[in-house]
Structure formats: C-alpha cells, structure tokens
Hints:
Number of domains: 2
Radius of gyration: 22 Å
Largest sheet: 7 strands, mixed
Bound molecules: pyridoxal-5'-phosphate
Strand content: 5-15%
Structural class: alpha/beta
Helix content: 40-55%
Number of helices: 18
Distance between the termini: 16 Å
CATH topology of the largest domain: Aspartate Aminotransferase, domain 2
CATH class of the largest domain: Alpha Beta
Amino acid sequence: MIWFNEISGADPEVYASIKRELDRQRTGLEMIPSENFTSVAVMQAMGSVLTNKYSEGYPGKRYYGGNQFIDEIEKTAIERAKKLFDVPYVNVQPYSGSPANLAVYMAICKPGDVIMGQNLTDGGHLTHGGKMSVTGQIFRSIPYHVKPDGYIDIEEARKLAVENKPKLIWVGSTAYTREFPFEEMAKIADEVGAYLAADIAHVAGLVVGGAHKSPVQYVHVVTTTTHKTLRGPRGAIIMVTEKGMKKDPELPSKIDKTIFPGMQGGPHDHTTAGIAIALLEASKPEFREYARQIVANSRALADSLKKNGVRLVTGGTDNHMILIDLTQHGKGKGVFVQDALDAAGITVNKNTIPNEPASPFYPSGIRLGTPALTTRGMKEPEMRLIGGLIADVINEVKGEELPEDKDKRNEVLKGFKERIKDNDKITEVRRKVIELCDKFPLYPGMELADQ
Ligand SMILES: *Cc1c(COP(=O)(O)O)cnc(C)c1O
C-alpha cells in the first residue's frame, strides 16, 4: 500500500522530507531513550478527522456542540488510564509533558513557593525547576543532587526539604539509570508536609508493564508523557492518586481547571484517540513482555559496553537507559561521540553527567536507551553487537579536542563532521548498522511513492 500519497501530490517538498525521515528511521539505530516507534494504529488516529474538532471543556461539559463522539473517545482514554495505572483521577488533555508539569505547579503552588526537583545536570528535567525553565523562574527552586556514585542523594534531599519546607517535590527525571526512590522521597515529603509528584515520563511503559516499581501508592500526583516507553502519540497524562485525594479532595478539579481554561484551549482530540489506543496496547500481555525485554536489552547493552572498556554512570542500569561517562578520555567529548555515532547511523544524545566537568552544551556524557530498538524486535545478541560498535566509535574519536576558545568551536566541529564522514572505521560501522537494520524491518507495509 502506498502511504501518504495525498501529501505527495499536495506538497512534494514536505513529502520528500517525510520520505527521507522514514528512510533515516529505518536504516539507523534509534537509541535516544525518550523515543520510540508508535504503532500504525496510533499513527492513523493522529491522521484522522478528529484533528478537525474543537472540544474545549471535558466530557459532558463542552463549550461547543457536536462533541458526542469526542466525549466517547476522551472517556475511553480516561477509563483505560485509570485502570492501567490504578488511579482514581486522570486528565488526558495536556499537550505534552512540559505543560502537564506546569499545570501541576499551577494547581498546587503559588508563584514564589519553594519547590524541589532533581538538579538538571544530575539528570533532572528542565520543568523540575531548571533555571532556563519558567518553573525555575516562577518558583523558588531548591535542587537535590546525585552522589558521586550516580545514585540520588536521599540524605541531602531530606536535609534540603527540612531546611526549605517545599510545597511540592518532584521525583522522576530524564537521565537516571536506576529505579526512582518513590518510597524514600515519600517519607521526606510526608515529613515536611509537601506534595510529592512523580514524573514517570521516561518509565511509564516500564511501570505499566511491571518492569519498574509504580509510584502510585507513594505519591500524590503522577505525570507522564505518552510517547516515550508508553509508545503512544506525543502527549501527556496527569493523574491524582488515592493518597493525593486524601491530601486534597479538590486536587482533581484544580488540575482540570488549570489545564482548561487555565493554560490550554481545545484539546488535541486526535492525540486523545492515539493515547486511548496506546493504553489498550499497553494493557496486553505482549506489552509486559516488551517492557521486560527493554530492560533485559538495556542490561545486555550495558554489559557489552563495559566489557569493551566503556565507563557507565552508576556502573550499569535498572531501566531502559544507559549513561556513558566519557571523562576517562577528557572533558566535553560528548559532542564528538554523538556526531560520530550519527555518521555511523546510531542516534543518541550527548548529556551531562553527575559532577559535569564541562558544560551542558558540550557535556561529557552520552545518554542512550533501548525502547525503540526493542520495538523493532532486537534482543540481547543484537545489544552485544551494538555495544561493540559503539565502543569502536568512541575509541576512534576519543582523541578529538574542543578548543578552549569558544568562537573557534563551531568551526572545529564543522570540520570534524566533514572529516568523520570519510573515516574508514565509521564507514565500516555504518555498513554493519544498515545490515542489522535490514534484519529488523520498521513499518514493513509502509511504502512511499517514488517521485
Ligand atoms: C520528556 C520529559 C518531559 C517533557 O515532555 P515533553 O513532551 O518533551 O514536553 C517531562 N519530564 C520528564 C522527566 C521527561 O523525561
């Protein structure tokens, strides 16, 4: 079947880009841990007539007419999320993870309140009080850190909470390779009377698949994106737990009002349908197997990297993610490794590591993960092979140096990118990557027309 053929006629320019992007996804190893390949069913919902509708408000309480079928879809998504995560209240309307988190702040806190989250360069998310984020500007942000071994410093978090009496504490982050300490953070939040919100954007799929502890019995609020390990469309969900209901029975209505009319207009109903479908998929036994395999793959990859001399933050992983520490080769090497892996068809992202010796823009780590490769059907043998390939690429570029003079950096990196394209080792890894990808076809039925 020829896909997107209407686009090909209506806009050849955009069509050509989509085609190149599909080819990039098919012929490369997608190892950014926040990415995944959603099902064709989810994608079809995103491309459906639901994108035409305005439905400000909530099921049964809309501002515009004609919402009887939209109501069905949103109610289905809500009921499925309640059942799957075992929570009494769900809002499926946030446009994405960042606005969902902002809505939690605005429902619970007032500007100037003290909030706590995991420090950005220690793996935390911008929206947990990062300086560049509005959350770090509207609220007084007290970040907690990880210890030199890479694990969250619970003692420090407790001390900071007792000293600063935060209104809201976040647990859950964006570059952390171990189980989140929900229970420990709950003790701290309860001790100081704070709200505790778990942001499980990265691990939601592992949580519903039984491969990561659920935060639900420990925290008051849970937020998650729907497009990472949960494998749905780009979107987000906010949940209130029984514990949250007890702390403030008004919390659900405060969150509903904050999302609409507080922060958003019409919900993206096509996304809501995609979320409903993804939640149904995630409730199947195959998804439990998928979640288990993500972690098994992540462990196999971590072992392979270590055997090949690559150092990892915390020395390994409990989840879908691995953080490579490149500081044994010098500081700020992440950008060279990312670009070289990119040239080899392995997509990862440079990332800060705990006690980052360089800067967030030129960090000394690489973050990678297994959710997307696992969706493609790859298992432990492929992970062992990939670990070797990544180690080869690191060894090839570990001697590259970033100039101290900031104005010269762009030029040096541009030269490096050109040079690396013709590098023999990188070319050889690229060939092996393509070979591997051929064995695990992505969206096999999705043919695109020649132009
Ligand atoms: C990805 C992520 C978000 C933000 O999601 P967006 O959809 O990109 O806005 C929030 N929190 C955490 C922990 C994340 O990993």
